[in-house]
Every structure is written in structure tokens, then in C-alpha cells.
Write a structure and sequence with these properties.
This protein is of the alpha/beta class. The chain is built from 14 helices and 18 strands. The chain folds into two domains: 233 residues, Putative sugar-binding, N-terminal domain (Rossmann fold, 3-Layer(aba) Sandwich); 184 residues, 3-Layer(aba) Sandwich (Molybdenum Cofactor Biosythetic Enzyme, Chain A), CATH 3.40.980.
């Protein structure tokens, strides 16, 4: 078998972000493997890209840097020709990081003095104009992200946000340059390098902009972005969209949704699911603070057991910002988040034990906790449900040394249409060969 080098080595700062990136690469013709954490052994399968999913978005800065460097070292050892650091399309971070420090440490690791960065993802209404990030027609700081419990985004000027996190100078490649195409972008990069700029935020308003940017990044050792730029990179390796790369095994078993995200899109999805008369059960975080966690889990699983055979059901802790802050005040933000995540993860395990084999997991932290609790270590990426969200297939350890094949959709909080929770399962049934 002719051995291809690994073309693209990707590091994602959370699990839903990893599948979002893998989704865009697969749609553009790459064979992609997603690993949960840094693998222990060498890559065995023949793929064009590997996406290493880390949980480094909201951990401490030092931990994020260390995990990212480990992932980078492993990917380079597998022969990756280009490293791609993937963060969220809403640029989730704080003045301490973790985006800037990770970018700078990866620059050192690959030995480069310059990289570009952009969270633009026009298919999901994320655009960058004059260095400012827009979510739909709203500035980032007016999009709901200013209320995020862990990474409130109150400034939309990414050059300023990133400069606060970086030691090196941050600059801008603006829309007027990008509009002139790849040669103009290359020229501007050369200019910025001469001026001593190390990291350049790039404006992008459309997929066409990202395709031009992608072509300009052909020889750049390190790229950092949300998943948007991914559509412009496969062309550099002579790859074009093809269907067979996204065929998953056939789906079976019961269907369930576990949702911990408090973003506006997810809250709408929860409301729509309930409004359509389907079974849903809220997890009351304040009960967790004074009740035994196990009691709450057992109660929900008893409720679920009777309903699973009838079709999809939803367990959610998703709540508007005021309810979230009540829980945080009772417990502290980190403790509240960790308690809810571990409870949802225990519920996800219980649902699988009851025969659920198709799971939608909503929210980055929730997805990570559930995937880790289920013991899934690698995911095959299937067809897209909505922009940024594909179905994935992985195997989870089961009793007596067996494994369960699971279909998982890891949905970033802000992604997906309002009817995503029902559409996802319909798409999976429709995908049967």
C-alpha cells in the first residue's frame, strides 16, 4: 500500500470543536481520524488528517500549553506537514488565554516567527471585518457570548483581545487585502513579517475569502483558526470533495440527547424538542448541591428506561444565564460546571447501558465529559447534520471485554438549527446505505 505522509495535524481545544473541524476536512475530501486526547502509540491507519481533541479551552493556561505541545509533538512524529490549532468560532478565551499562549508555544515548537489566525466560519454566520468578530449581524460582545459562564466575551476586536494574551505583536490582514486573493494575502504576510508582527488576525466574510486564504497558507508551518479555514486547506494537497470518506457503519439501538450547553442556540433546541411533545427531563443543579448525585442519576435513568423504546428523549441541564448564576453562587463557577458535567456523564453511561446507541451530546464541556466517561478514544467522522456538526462513530468498552458501537453527534453549544435534536436522528436513518 502506498504510504502517504500525514498532511494535516490538528489540535482542537475541545471535543465538539474537534468534530466541527474534522467535519469540514471530510467534506473537502480528506480522510480524517479524531482521537480523544493524545494517543499513546503511533498512527496505524492511512489518513490525510488527524484531529487530536483536547479539553484545553477552559483549563489553566499552563495545562493548555502543555497538552497542546504534547499533541503537536505526537503529530509531528507522525509526519504531519502542517499543524492546525483549532479554537472556537466565538474565540472563547480570557485575558490570560488560552488561545494566545497556545499559539505562541506552538510557534516555538514548530520553529516559525509568523502565523495567521481567524475564527471566521461564514457557513455558521461567523465573519471577521476590520478585525472585529460578528455572530450573525451582531458584534461578538452583543451575541450572548458576553454572558458565557466561563469565557465571557465582552470585546469584539480580536486584535486587541489576542494582544492581551500574547507577548509577540499582533496585526491584521484586512478585508481589502483578502478580497484581492491569495497573491495579495501572501504579499501582506511578507510585509507584516518585516514589520515584526508575529500573529495576524485575518478578515473573512465568505467561503470564497477562506478559499483564497487557504491557498495563501500553503507553506505555513502553523495555522490557527476556528474550523472555517479548513475548507481552504485540502486543495493545497490536491484533494477535492468525495463521498466515500464519510460513510459510517449502520445505526441501531435507542436514541437520546444529553445537553449541558447554556448557549442561545441550544436553549432554542431544547424548547423546540419539548414543544414538539417529546419526552424531556431537566436536571436541577441546585438539587445536586444538596442531594446525593447518585440519587439524581438513578431517578433520571428510571424515567428514561420506560421511554427509550418509544423514540428520542432529552436530558438537559441547559438553563438561561440567571439560573446558571444561582447555581454558581451556591457552588462557585468551576465546581458547579464540574458537578453538572460529571452528572450528565453518569447519565450518558446509564443510557448506553439501557441500550442507547445513538447519542446527541450538546455543549463542549458536556460532550467531553460524556465521551471520556463512555471510554471512546477515537472517532470516525461521518456526514454533516448541520454546518459544524457531523455524525461520528466510535466504540465504547462494554462488560465482558466486548465493545458497543456508538453513533455520536458532538454539538457545539452555539451550532445547529432550532429543530436539530429531532433532525439529527432523521439524518442518521436517512444515511443508511
Amino acid at each position: 500500500m502506498h504510504h502517504h505522509p500525514l498532511r494535516l495535524g490538528c489540535i482542537a481545544d475541545d471535543f465538539t470543536g474537534a468534530t466541527d473541524l474534522a467535519n469540514n476536512l471530510v467534506r473537502c475530501g480528506m480522510r480524517v481520524l479524531q482521537t480523544i486526547g493524545v494517543p499513546m502509540q503511533a498512527l496505524k491507519s492511512e489518513v490525510d488528517a488527524v484531529v487530536v481533541a483536547l479539553k484545553s479551552r477552559t483549563c489553566s493556561r499552563d495545562e493548555a500549553v502543555q497538552q497542546s505541545l504534547q499533541a503537536c509533538a505526537w503529530l509531528r512524529a507522525q509526519g504531519a506537514q502542517q499543524i492546525y490549532f483549532k479554537y472556537c468560532s466565538t474565540f472563547d478565551s480570557t485575558p490570560q488565554g488560552n488561545i494566545g499562549p497556545v499559539i505562541e508555544s506552538l510557534m516555538d515548537a514548530v520553529g516559525t516567527d509568523f502565523t495567521v489566525t481567524t475564527p471566521a466560519f461564514p457557513a455558521n454566520q461567523r465573519t471577521v471585518f476590520q478585525g472585529h468578530l460578528f455572530v450573525g449581524d451582531a458584534l461578538l460582545s452583543e451575541s450572548g457570548m458576553q454572558l458565557h459562564p466561563l469565557t465571557p466575551m465582552t470585546d469584539s476586536n480580536l486584535v486587541r483581545v489576542l494582544q492581551a494574551q500574547c507577548d509577540r505583536p499582533v496585526g491584521l490582514i484586512d478585508f481589502a487585502t483578502v478580497a484581492q486573493g491569495a497573491p495579495a494575502i501572501r504579499q501582506r504576510i511578507a510585509q507584516l513579517r518585516q514589520q515584526g508582527v508575529a500573529v495576524a488576525v485575518v478578515d473573512a466574510l465568505s467561503d470564497a475569502d477562506l478559499m483564497q486564504l487557504g491557498a495563501a497558507l500553503k507553506d505555513m508551518p502553523l495555522v490557527s483558526a476556528a474550523s472555517g479555514v479548513a475548507i481552504g486547506l485540502p486543495q493545497n494537497f490536491g484533494l477535492a470533495p468525495s463521498d466515500p470518506v464519510s460513510v459510517l457503519p449502520r445505526a441501531s439501538g435507542y436514541q437520546a440527547i444529553v445537553s449541558g450547553s447554556c448557549s442561545r442556540a441550544t436553549l432554542r433546541q431544547v424548547q423546540r424538542f419539548i414543544a414538539s411533545g417529546l419526552p424531556a427531563r431537566a436536571l436541577d443543579p441546585l438539587r445536586l448541591t444538596n442531594a446525593a448525585q447518585q440519587d439524581v442519576v438513578d431517578e433520571i435513568l428510571t424515567w428514561a428506561q420506560a421511554l427509550l423504546p418509544q423514540g428520542p428523549l432529552l436530558v438537559y441541564s441547559s438553563a438561561p444565564a440567571d439560573a446558571v448564576s444561582a447555581t454558581q453562587n451556591a457552588l462557585g463557577a468551576r465546581a458547579a460546571g464540574a458537578l453538572i458535567e460529571s452528572t450528565l456523564a453518569a447519565i450518558a453511561r446509564g443510557l448506553v447501558a439501557l441500550g442507547a446507541r445513538q447519542l446527541v451530546l450538546a455543549g463542549g464541556e458536556t460532550s467531553a465529559a460524556c465521551v471520556q466517561a463512555l471510554g471512546v478514544t477515537r472517532l470516525q467522522i461521518g456526514a454533516q447534520i448541520d454546518p459544524g456538526v457531523p455524525w461520528c462513530y466510535g466504540r465504547a468498552p462494554a462488560p465482558e471485554g466486548a465493545t458497543h458501537g456508538l453513533h455520536l453527534a458532538l454539538k457545539s453549544g452555539n451550532f445547529g438549527r432550532d429543530d436539530f435534536f429531532t433532525q439529527a436522528f432523521q439524518a442518521l436513518q436517512g444515511a443508511r446505505p
